[in-house]
Specification:
The protein has 9 helices and 12 strands. It has about 300 residues and is α/β, with parallel strands linked by helices. It comes from Datura stramonium (Jimsonweed).
Length: about 300
Amino acid sequence: MSICSSSSSSSSSFSSTKAWILHGIAVGAAVAGALGARAYLGRSSKFRTRVIGIIPARFASTRFQGKPLVQILGKPMIQRTWERAKLAETLDQVVVATDDEKIAECCRGFGAEVIMTSESCRNGTERCNEALQKLGKKYDIVVNIQGDEPLIEPEIIDGIVKALQAAPDAVFSTAVTSLKPEDAFDPNRVKCVVDNHGYAIYFSRGLIPYNKSGKVNPQFPYLLHLGIQSYDTKFLKIYPELTPTPLQLEEDLEQLKVLENGYKMKVIKVDHEAHGVDTPDDVEKIERFMRERNLA
């Protein structure tokens, strides 16, 4: 397993399978109802039209040191993520936000715009917020694109943006897909439950819902959370000021701080062959998947 030194290989897009949005994007915008939303969402004739995609990346990681730079069939993983993000139609700009010069040098080598951020950022959301402030440009939506999903579909990026644009009572949007039975008890695969209106109820590293038998129910449509998420930029400024919450700290999931503070999160369901890279062992799995489908 090799690490990128100064890769400058040209971007080459591989064909993607269309991600079908099953539900979550309403045709008409819902009336803003959450008290938290009213506190900061103003009236606007052009609602959330300006969109930026930010890929937060850090070298230090307890589970996988230098993960953004690991080679995936000859390209650093963050390059593959950046190339996929550039194909999204809703993004006006795509940047990488990092606190590491090795990552920055690698990204500049393949043509990405880089924003240097501080090491004090506690998570990707805070890194996105700092990068946005340093850019000095006004955007309505920030899409946090996880660098460890190198096969992310551009249609999914567009889907969560449109979902947030269509739900003014929400401050956050994200995507889920079907959970594979073998991933049911993997704490690195985050699960989600959603209400009948497409809003998130809860996220967990454990299996949710959990039945009395303690076993996976093959008939139940369990949902796997995909790391990609978008925020209203006004909320993104508020987020770092919110005190960490008990559920967030216990599960180590930043999106729970949003829910615990009473804000609404829109969720879309998509058909996506999820291949996140959480550990070094996942690299071989994703390379094998790409070879089998000629996605190199």
